Amino acid sequence: MANSDDILLITLRQTGAELPSGATSVRELDAAALFGACAACVNAIHEARGEEQRLLSALPANPGVRFRACTQLAAAIASLGYAEELGFNHFLYPNEAESRSLLLFLVDALPKLDATAADVPTAGGGAMAQIRAALQQWRHAPWLPPEWSGKRALPPPAAARVRAALRRAALAAALKAEQHAELERRLARRGEAEEASGEGGFGAPPPPPPPPPAAAAGGARGGAFAHQTLFAEGKEGDAPGEKAGGEGAESGVERAERVEVEKLRARRAELAELEAAREEGKAALEAAKAAMAALEAARPAAEARLAAAEAETQALQRTHAVRQKALQLLADEAAAAQMVERTEQKKAQLAQLKADCEAEQAPLDEELRKLEQALQARREGATAKIRLMRELQASMRAMVEQLQLRDEMSARLSLELERQPKGQSRSSYTRRIMDIVKSLRKQKVDIEKILTDVRESQKEVNSASETLSRSFAAADEIIYRAAVHEEASKQCYKGLAKLHETFGLLGESVQEIGNVRNAIRDLQTKTDELALRNTAEAIERMGADLKELKEQNAKLSAQ
């Protein structure tokens, strides 16, 4: 079972379903994971069949939308041929056995690729089949240069020339067709005349008619495209004439066509050479761009090196100027003597300043050392005082808590003492204790009965809640199915949803009222307890103790 669950989960992940990362069995799939896996399988099946219907891939957060999405998914799976009972509750409240059966059915229903279509079988093959079909179509498509793969807009003059050439080519083709039709009619009439006269054969072929002026002008000015069109149509239209005329001499039109074909071939060869030259130029341009990019990339480093070299040059120039000035001064004996004298004066001044600084620095260092010692002592004293203050505060809090507890206990005992009757015998106390024990037993029995009634009431409430939820779900499903076609059912569905929402708000209101009543009862009990306490005396004692503690803190702070 574990191996089958592993294979099942791997297949579901291959279809694109988002499953928990640590899931190892169908039992670990929650409602959201089960819904996503089933939706992914159904979408893959629809995609393979070419259907446009796609289901939600994730479980919505809204309860109403979630119910409708689960119902739609159940209907889609049932339409695939799932024989067992299936509804929205199978997705919202999944069961391990039913979920495993449902997932196995969907995995078996996934499209499979045969051995000729794919080397490796996959669970969902619709997308892969479409990709392979697209690749096969692209493989059989004719190759075109990248510059010719898209439509390019011609400039207006070129577009006008192309349109004029196309018009001339169409006119030439029409005239050529009329010429051949006229030739066929002449041949047919001559054949009929010869058959009527009883002569055999066709005799000498009639001279070819001269080409029309419009066709000649169009062929002269139409360019390579028009000549190529005329040549293709001429080859198709000259077949009957060749059969009729036999092996006659080459006409002027054929010679013109042959010349145009040769020109066209020459232009094609020239175009191929230009294309090769363009490719070479393009390669050279790419190489130049690459070299320029490399130079641009190396430019910042070169500029940095140049800046460093300039800075070093300026520093060397300054050093050279100083040294050159020093060499010039060395040649002058008066300047050298003056330099030595000033050097000695500077040394004497530095020695005097050093002695004065040491004389001034010694008392300052001593005073600084004393101040640091005093500061350290004050820090230690402050730390000790803070620690002592914290200890005193903790002891004060403990004393206050003890005083409060003792005051409460004293007040309670005093109240009980005041309530105790005076001068009663021991037997009366014993009798009262026995009555209290009996009343406690009765109260215990009553409490057990109340608890039993509460449990039964809770069971009835739970049963009624489950019945209500099932009834609402069934009614919601029935009305929602009918609401698709009927306006009254839509209004009924809205009323049902509003009624369910109102009952929910009513239940929450009743629960809040009960909580408020319990809170009022607790507050009343606490109020009664506080009223029984003798807090005035405790407050006076606490004030006296607090005053004494403040005086002690003031004395400690003064010390």
From TrEMBL:
Domain CCDC22 N-terminal: 1-111
Comp. bias intervals (Pro residues): 204-214
Stretches for region Disordered: 183-221, 235-256
GO biological process assignments: positive regulation of ubiquitin-dependent protein catabolic process
Residue ranges of every copy of the CCDC22 coiled-coil domain listed in the record: 223-530
Keyword Membrane: no
One of the record's GO molecular function terms: cullin family protein binding
Coiled coil (residue ranges): 264-360, 532-559
Pfam families per record: CCDC22_CC (PF05667), CCDC22_N (PF21674)
Alphabetical keyword list: Coiled coil
Keyword presence, Lipid biosynthesis: no
Compositional bias annotation for Basic and acidic residues: 183-193, 235-245
Family in the record: Belongs to the CCDC22 family.
Record protein name field: Coiled-coil domain-containing protein 22 homolog
